[in-house]
Design a protein that fits this description.
InterPro entries: Glyas_Bleomycin-R_OHBP_Dase, Glyas_Fos-R_dOase_dom, GlyoxalaseI/FosfomycinResist, VOC_core. It comes from Flectobacillus longus. This protein has 130 residues and is α/β, with parallel strands linked by helices. A hairpin with a 5-residue loop joins strand 6 (98-105) and strand 7 (111-116). The protein has helices at residues 14-24, 53-59, 85-95, and strands at residues 6-11, 28-32, 38-42, 47-52, 78-81, 98-105, 111-116, 122-126.
Length: 130
């Protein structure tokens, strides 16, 4: 048996990132470590986690590429589905997200928009498929 359990974003300030996601999206904190170097949000089936960049450095001795709003996003995105993309885009921007692409209806009928979080990670906000 295998199951997609979580995604970890390496960030500069775990508590600040968690606060952004709680304000921008309807998620709640599941856990924050006592030293604030790791946290998890309840997002549904898959946990969204945050770890301080110092943990990444200790886990990846050859280094890693940090996410930043000053550089292009990585070739990966986090996707959140919603019935109201426009409202969620507005709420996320009010919380501090940066708009990348406004809501657009795709040929297959799905509405899709893109924002970047406060650490520069790319987020797709979209209606559910079919």
């Amino acid at each position: 048996m295998i199951k997609f359990a979580y995604t970890i974003l390496y960030v500069s300030d775990v508590e600040k990132s968690v606060a952004f996601y709680e304000k921008a999206f309807p998620f709640t904190t599941k856990f924050i470590s006592p030293d604030s170097t790791y946290a998890e949000l309840i997002t549904g089936e898959t946990t969204l986690s945050f770890a301080h960049k110092s943990l990444a450095a200790s886990n990846l001795p050859e280094g890693f590429q940090e996410s930043s709003l000053s550089s292009k996003p990585f070739a990966i995105e986090i996707g959140f589905t919603t019935d109201n993309v426009e409202a969620l885009v507005k709420q996320s921007i009010e919380a501090g997200a940066t708009l990348v692409a406004p809501p657009k209806q795709k040929p297959w009928g799905q509405t899709v928009a893109y924002v970047r979080d406060i650490d520069g990670f790319l987020i797709e906000l979209c209606t559910p498929m079919g």
